[in-house]
Amino acid sequence: MKIWVDADACPKVVKEILYRAAERVRVPLILVANQPLAVPRSEFISSRSVAQGLDAADQAIVDWAEAGDLAVTADIPLAARLVEKNVLAINPRGELYSRENVRQQLSMRDFMDELRGSGVQTGGPPAFHARDRQAFANQLDRLLARRTP
Left, alpha or beta for 24 (phi > 0: left; psi -120 to 50: alpha)? Predict the structure, then answer.
């Protein structure tokens, strides 16, 4: 198992949880972004920069991730593509994307996008709280405990 991170919009606190987990369970952690990232020096932690452009990092993650890997992303279309490849995907709030829920979330995202496009103010996502950090850490621990070494 490798852990792939859609790093451009990933909260710093989530990255820090991932750094500690990668070291603790000795699993490769790869952060993918449109610009170079500073990551801790570790044999388990690396970053990959991809070309600038819309969804370049998303496409790279889809290309590189394999069935059984884990991806961290808040990007629902990316999560849907990964779930189709049998890649586990969670968002920074700890919600696990599945075949059962990702299509519904994608439909809701598209609906909200249509509302915004027509001028309706929908607001943004709620603020990231300590309970979100804890939910992410708990979900990550559960998923890493299930992995086959």
Answer: alpha
